[in-house]
Write a structure and sequence with these properties.
- This protein is mainly beta.
- Helices cover 0% and strands 45% of the residues.
- The radius of gyration is 16 Å and the shape is elongated.
- The relative contact order is 0.18.
């Protein structure tokens, strides 16, 4: 498969695609570490700026998902922080937790408005792609 060299915030990584990049879930190898990346298309306004997104340090909102009950890990990594607790009301896009992967913090935002029912992740825990992180109440 194809190889790329990317620079992110001044750091350079060697990336090798391990699966079809046109799919929603792509397997890659970054500096020898295998990862699964979930890709999500966003609408683009005429000026070229995304309709959905967030400022630096803020979680990027996901498409409205009123029926989402469980939030799962979108990538493997270590839980760095949990910003919510059971019973807490949250709004779509609000920071739920942070997963550290490849020495980068990945903010996981709420996919919808709702109330947190239970949290399955703890700080310091290693999580795999797709592992349950938290559930919303009914």
């Amino acid at each position: 498969m194809k190889r790329y060299r990317i620079t992110l915030e001044g750091r350079t990584f060697d990336v090798r695609l391990l699966s079809d990049p046109s799919q929603a879930v792509v397997k890659v190898e970054v500096d020898g570490l295998p990862l699964t990346v979930q890709m999500e298309a966003v609408e683009v306004q005429a000026e070229g700026s995304p309709v959905v997104g967030a400022g630096e340090g803020e979680p990027a909102p996901r498409p409205a998902s009123a029926g989402v009950r469980r939030v799962t890990a979108p990538l493997p990594g270590t839980i760095k922080s949990v910003a919510v607790e059971p019973g807490q009301a949250v709004v779509r896009g609000q920071k739920l937790l942070v997963i550290e992967a490849m020495k980068m913090d990945n903010v996981i935002g709420s996919p919808r408005d709702g109330v947190i029912d239970s949290i399955h992740a703890t700080v310091g825990q290693q999580v795999a792609y797709g592992e349950p992180l938290l559930d919303f109440g009914p």
